[in-house]
Design a protein that fits this description.
rod-shaped
Length: 202
């Protein structure tokens, strides 16, 4: 029987080196170089974030402004006024300042014979006065809350000044509220100064 020869260590090492060299060449031959890629054929999702950012250029110049849009509808607008009222007894009656389309009328009086010489009154001829907001005067301890849904008038008075700042309407005439601000001051010399502003709703 012929005896089998055992390969020497040098032969084993050389064979391993040969296999590694051949395998590395095969792996390298499987890679794609940039020269083999056609332009504009790689989808964005295949690129890295840094590659995508590098492709972005600088922001271009601002474009021209568009044409002016159409003019909006005219709002309800505010109405303001003022009055210098003489000092007279309450029996003479309140002076009418304004009457709004929603049925609310603003009035005032100047009467130094009463504890509150300057008085303002929101009044409706019929139905009920709905008024919500605040009132203030030098006879009150601070700003008061107005929450009225009954009665036909609201009177606020002061010794030297009084204010009404509410939204109000007469539901029997209109469901639309109006903003009403009235300021009154007793300035002495037998007169009161009344200023007001109203803003109806659309």
């Amino acid at each position: 029987m012929q005896k089998r020869r055992t390969p020497s260590p040098a032969l084993v090492i050389s064979m391993i080196a040969l296999f590694v060299a051949l395998g590395g060449t095969a792996y390298a031959s499987g890679l794609i170089s940039g020269a083999q890629i056609k332009n504009h054929t790689i989808a964005k999702k295949k690129l890295t974030k840094s590659a995508i950012l590098s492709l972005r250029g600088q922001r271009g110049p601002r474009g021209y402004a568009g044409p002016t849009g159409p003019t909006g509808a005219t709002g309800p607008g505010a109405t303001s006024g003022g009055a210098l009222l003489p000092d007279q007894p309450s029996a003479a009656g309140f002076t009418t300042l304004f009457t709004l389309p929603n049925g609310v009328t603003g009035k005032a009086i100047c009467d130094s014979t009463t504890p509150d010489p300057v008085q303002m009154d929101l009044w409706v001829a019929s139905g009920a006065l709905f008024a919500f907001g605040t009132s203030n005067s030098d006879l009150s301890s601070g700003v008061g809350h107005v929450d009225q849904i009954y009665g036909d008038h609201l009177v606020i008075g002061g010794n030297s000044y009084a204010d009404i700042d509410v939204i109000a309407t007469n539901p029997s005439v209109s469901t639309k509220f109006a903003r009403i601000d009235i300021h009154g001051a007793f300035v002495g010399g037998n007169k009161c100064i009344i200023d007001w502003m109203t803003i109806p709703s659309n």
